[in-house]
Amino acid sequence: MNYIGNKYRVLEQILPLLPECNTFVDLFAGGLDVSVNEDAADVYCNDINCYLINIYKAFQENGYEAVLAHAEARMEEFGLSKENEEGYLAFRNFYNHSERDPLDLYLLMNYGFNYQFRFNSKHEFNNPFGRNRSSFNTALQERLRFFMERIENFAFSSADFRDFDFSVLEEGDLIYCDPPYSLSIGSYNDGKRGFKGWSRDDDLDLMGILDSLSDRGVKFALSNVTEHKGQEHTELKRWAEKYTVHVIDRGYGNCSYHLSDRNTLTKEVLITNE
After folding, report:
1. Does the pTM exceed 0.85?
2. What are φ and ψ of residue 146, in 5° steps?
3. How far apart are CA 258 and CA 249, in angstroms?
4. N or C: less crowded end of the chain, CB within 10 Å?
């Protein structure tokens, strides 16, 4: 899944920092980059975006061959290709004014600009066409096969993080959190896409939950940024002092860890209680 904010580029840094566990919870699951690389016996994935979660459930319910057959039928019906913007827009309109099949949404994403998963305030998919770039190509189909095999036994839910059933976690289990970053506003956390935004109050609530879980002996790992374009997340820095902070080396386009100008600095971290 090419999902905004995914951790694909930094998996090699994050995965060695995650302790072994029997039960793993991905509280802000997104594109599942971390979850599909976990070896826990039981994996729970939650995300407030119900459309995303419904895609994963549809994968489980249908199986790879059925998903591929559905995609091929839609590609032929609407003439989907890297160049056919008219076909893409017709398919997008069909999706938004039909029962909104999760498998149609998945295919739409693969022909949209930068593979983005974007909605308007009415929950209508509104990503523009990905001309000469995006398509449901052979390489992506093979990745999908692997992806579906990995999530076959995952348990999925779509809820506000505060409402997740944390009773599934016992001492020694692990919860991973990659919430929206309050220091950086994007299309996934600006509150203008038909879903809730993200604020410092949400950060504080999440910190409180992680404190409570830590007191119960549950292990956690939290991805976030403590500095971004001249801003500091002082509450997060203060809270993290009682835990272990690992700096993640990740490029952000025009941002750099090595420039002296603080206005260009982004400091991404992984905070753990081990």
Report:
1. yes
2. -60, -45
3. 10
4. C
